From TrEMBL:
Gene3D superfamilies: Vaccinia Virus protein VP39. One of its GO terms (molecular function) is methyltransferase activity. This is SAM-dependent methyltransferase. Keywords: Methyltransferase, Transferase. One of its GO terms (biological process) is methylation. It comes from Metabacillus lacus.
Length: 186
């Protein structure tokens, strides 16, 4: 088992073609599904994973599926382990952005947002992780009025490319932010 070989296991869920986090275990949905514990059980022991990174993954789940996926992650995370999660921000006040990230996406079946089932805001995402037993720290998010808030966060704990901090599209004006949280197992 991988968890017997490594003492500090860091996992990227739905890594796609990106490798923004060298040294992390990069997985695809077929290998490690948030809604199927079998893949987790085959690769990791309970309480063995230090960190999980999921960039634009949880919006492909309903709210209840998100809670269930978070509960599976909770089981495999160590005490004080965390999920760094980024999703599209439902409170970002930009019509083009909201049209792009909306449930079902903007159009063609091959658009990445076609399978979006929810557009979270900081309240729904926090609630979802809290229902699974996590303590939540907001890192980047928009409030109800669309005002952007950001805390200092360290990319060594997991790089989120689609962020104010790392996405060059956001260097001068915020055009494609993410709602980013750390959900911590206490």
């Amino acid at each position: 088992m991988l968890s017997e070989i490594l003492s500090d296991i860091k996992v990227v869920i739905g890594a796609g073609e990106y490798n923004n986090n060298p040294g992390w275990v990069h997985t695809q949905e077929e290998e490690l599904n948030l809604l199927g514990e079998r893949g987790w059980k085959n690769r990791f022991e309970s309480n063995s994973v230090t960190a999980i990174l999921a960039e634009h993954v949880w919006e492909h789940l309903t709210f209840q599926e998100g809670v269930e996926g978070a509960k599976i992650c909770f089981k495999y995370l160590k005490h004080n382990g965390y999920i760094r999660c980024a999703v599209p921000d439902g409170y970002f006040k930009n019509e083009d952005y909201q049209n792009t990230v909306k449930v079902g996406g903007p159009g063609p079946l091959d658009h990445p947002a076609y399978s979006h089932k929810i557009v979270h805001n900081y309240q729904t995402l926090t609630n979802m992780f809290e229902m699974a037993g996590f303590e939540v720290n907001l890192l980047e998010y928009c409030d109800e009025e669309g005002n952007f808030h950001a805390k200092k966060w360290d990319g060594r704990d997991g790089v989120i490319f689609r962020s104010k901090k790392y996405d060059p599209r956001n260097s001068t004006t915020l055009v494609f932010p993410s709602l980013i949280v750390d959900a911590i197992k206490r």
